[in-house]
Amino acid sequence: MSSEKSGDTITVETAAATGPAALKWGFKCPLSDPNIQRDDVRKVWKECQEESFWYRALPLSLGSMAVTGGLIYKGIWSSSKRFGPFPKLAVAGILGYALGKASYVGTCQNKFQKLGVSVGPGFGPWPGPGRRSCNHVCEECKKTAHTAPAEEMKS
Question: GO terms for CC (predicted)?
Fold first, then answer.
């Protein structure tokens, strides 16, 4: 650990924050852990995308469109005078697709947990406001996060 004092700012560097996978909080991203292979994560992500499409999103989308088309054909729902049945069929297809994708999230989370990637709030590859770019948290990282000093401290 080294520290420098210049004016009112103290800069502290920890040994854990010097690696290429270091985050701005001063500890390494656990996905750089040799126990978790990036290829495995990519493989599971691709499987989740494909399986959610073929097993949930596409069947629900086609099913909801078929039910909507049947309701329009029977006269229970009326079709648009200008566009015909297409707007209602499109909305039914989009809603079925979205519900199918959303219904597969739990299965994908279980697959990632089997790899050792912790699933918590903010699960997913997209960092948002207040979220780290790496969601995997191991015991070593929990300890390091609490004991790592801030990179810059105002005095």
Answer: mitochondrial inner membrane
31 within 8 A of 38, measured Cβ to Cβ? yes
Give me the residue spans of the domains in the chain. Answer: 80-116
Contact 115, 138 (CB under 8 A): no
H or E element that contains 152? strand 152-154
Rounded distance between C-alpha atoms, residue 144 and residue 142, angstroms: 6
DSSP secondary structure string, 23-66?
Answer: -TTSSB-GGGSTTS-HHHHHHHHHHHHHHIIIIIIHHHHHHHHH
Q: pTM for the whole thing? A: 0.56
Q: What are phi and psi of 122, to 5 degrees?
A: 85, 30
